[in-house]
Amino acid sequence: MITATLEAGSALTHLQCTACGREHDAERLQNLCPDCGKVLFARYDLERAARTLTREAVATRPRGMWRWRELLPVREARNVVSLGEGDTPLMAVPRLGARARLKRLLLKDEGTNPTGSFKARGISAAVSRALELGARDVALPTAGNAGGALAAYAARAGLGAHVYMPVDAPELNRKEAAVYGAEVVLVRGLINDCGAWVRRRAGEEGWYDLSTFKEPYRAEGKKTMGLELVEQLGWEVPDVIVYPTGGGTGLVGIWKALEELEQLGWIDSRRPRMIAVQTEGCAPIVRAFQQGLDHAPAVQGARTSISGLRVPAAVADFLMLALIRRSGGTAVTVTDEEALAGMREIASTEGVFPAPEGGAVWAGIKALVASGAIGRDDRVVLMNTGTGLKYGELVSVELPVVERL
Ligand SMILES: Cc1ncc(COP(=O)(O)O)c(C=O)c1O
Q1: What is the band of 8 on the pLDDT scale with cuts at 50, 70, 90?
Q2: pTM of the predicted model, to two decimals?
Q3: Within a 10 A sphere around the Cβ of 51, how many other Cβ atoms?
Q4: Distance between CA atoms of 361 and 107, rounded to whole angstroms?
Q5: Does 243 score more than 80 pLDDT?
Q6: Do 140 and 198 meet the contact criterion of CB atoms below 8 Å apart?
Q7: Which of 149, 236, 346, 359 is the most exposed place for a label (fewest CB within 10 A)?
Q8: Residue nearest to atom 6 of ligand 1 (CA)
């Protein structure tokens, strides 16, 4: 199916450093900028892309994120490693919205992706490109969901996968990565400690390091959330996008999508207010935003049970802070309890069992409506980044038991 539809091809031209602006070769495996050590972005020939990427083509191609192939980095159709990621539902959630007296609340449900989270998008793009450029083994540090996704996509690609996650990552994240056949190592520490292990072992073994933003293509897969969102809204942007922020690939990817859509002439210069939600126990981006900083100092002693948000230091901190400010957005914290209550509220009002990170977003939205930062008429998108089904240990229910009649 994908072979038949990929002849249009990627319009990728080169990589460009987001800090020093220097250009780098996209035809070999790269990590951070070789000159200044910052994040590299994929750049495309958008004029060329527009020859085959039309709104009509996007509407009629088979569903999934590879519909946007001109804006994705893979050259040869045979290298696309897909499990059916993307094209997740964007649904009106009026019962939930009514709880905050919001008239136009929408939920984008990334929990319907393969492996149950938005991580599938980034990993599909990154594993495909790593395969195309000759990697044999791939590795990453993860809060949990990216490890499951990497293990699944590497299995499908026939690559070796090496996953380092905190020893207290959700049980199902640990198990799924192992079941997909990855080497899974549990680290007594946080995701940055896992990152140090990956750096060391990748250097020793020659594995390709797919750490968030140390590799240019995961953000490209995440970008497709933004492309889809705008298409689903009839080529309009919403007023507000609220996103649970850890490493920030989603936030940065969606913003990049909007910039590329504007360059293609498909949207104008209006932007949604981009809002980051973190938890009280680990909020480097919120604190840096509040203090007017361009970079976020690492959080010491990060503590939160919302595993995807337990990221004490993010490589793309400066990109997140810049885009939140440019968009007129903001950044807020919620408590773990509010996030977990939010999870139940979404599930019981709308029938979507969200990841705790989605629950955190809902708690954040309620606080922002209360403070006036979100208006009741705003069209607001709640990004639910994953399914709640993997988080049994965070959900406790008391159920009556009766004897047999
Ligand atoms: C369900 C979920 N939501 C959100 C995040 C944070 O995402 P990002 O790194 O894009 O900020 C993660 C990361 O592990 C996650 O698993």
Answers
A1: confident
A2: 0.96
A3: 11
A4: 10
A5: yes
A6: yes
A7: 236
A8: 246
Q: Cα separation of 127 and 86, whole Å?
A: 15
Count CB atoms within 10 A of the CB of residue 193: 14
CB 386 within 8 A of CB 107: no
Give the separation between CA 70 and CA 64, rounded to whole angstroms.
Answer: 14
Mutational pocket test of ligand 1: of 220, 357, 362, 391, the residue with most ligand atoms within 8 Å of the beta carbon: 357
The whole-angstrom separation of Cα 126 and Cα 42 is 12
Tokens of 380: 């607001």
Distance 402 CA to ligand 1 centre (A): 40
For the beta carbon of residue 204, count every other beta carbon within 10 angstroms: 8
Residues 297-309: pLDDT tens digits? 999 999 999 999 9
Are the beta carbons of 39 and 48 closer than 8 angstroms?
no
Do the Cβ atoms of 96 and 342 come closer than 8 Å? no
The single residue listed with the structure tokens 């507000």 is 240
At residue 3, the pLDDT reads 44
Q: What is the dihedral of CA 331, 336, 339, 343, to 10 degrees?
A: 150
Look at residues 270, 234, 239 and name the one whose alpha carbon lies nearest to residue 377. 239
Q: Would you say the CB of residue 387 lies under 6 angstroms from ligand 1?
A: no
CA–CA dist 275, 167 (Å, integer): 30
Does the pLDDT at position 1 exceed 70? no
> Does residue 145's CB lie within 6 angstroms of at least one atom of ligand 1?
yes
The class (CATH top level) of 90-116+217-393 is alpha beta
Q: How far apart are alpha carbons 28 and 339 in whole angstroms? A: 41
Query: Regarding beta strands 183-187 and 160-166, do their DSSP bridges make them parallel or antiparallel, or are they unpaired?
Result: parallel
Helices 119-132 and 145-157, interaxial angle, to 10°? 40
Probe ligand 1: pick from 145, 254, 274, max atoms within 8 Å of CB?
Answer: 145
Q: What does the block give as tokens for 104?
A: 């136009």
